[in-house]
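Entry type: protein chain
Record version: 2
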Amino acid sequence: MIVSLDDVNRIRSNVARAHVLAATRFREAFAQSPVSPSAHLEMLAAALLETAEGVRFDGALPAFADRDSAIFRRFKIERTPAALLEYWIIVSEIFATSSWAMTRLVATSEEYDEALRRMTSPQIVRAIVLELLPSVDWPSLEVTVYTRAIEERIERRQLVLDANQELHFHARTLLAEGRGGIAS
């Protein structure tokens, strides 16, 4: 089932709002007293869950340094395509890998064209792209992403949610690649 562009934009808007909330809260906390090095990440995680519509967390979110795979079982995910997409984005933001910071969801032909324009010497591998919007066949999520981590590429990724609610990379279809990239 395709995740509608309206749902994608709503989720993106909620994530952007969470970033603003976290930045504001961090500035306010920092103005009053010194804060821990991970304070912004803690505040961002809380704000992401606060602004989420299809994802909840059971209990208090562990400190950044204490997060491990046990955290996944404590998420409550509505069984809707939009909620699975939202979960992937939230978990990716909470664990904040360096490669995630260089990865963007591609959901429209305009975003695909923009990603191609950003690439250094793009080579289109698959000329006909039938669908860019995320899709869900529970518990599988397919998303199109542009990434500059190590290699510059646009690809359709398939992720699968396991019984512990951890998303695992399952497969990818390369759509385009460039010569750029940033080592993480």
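Comment: DSSP finds five helices and eight strands in the chain.
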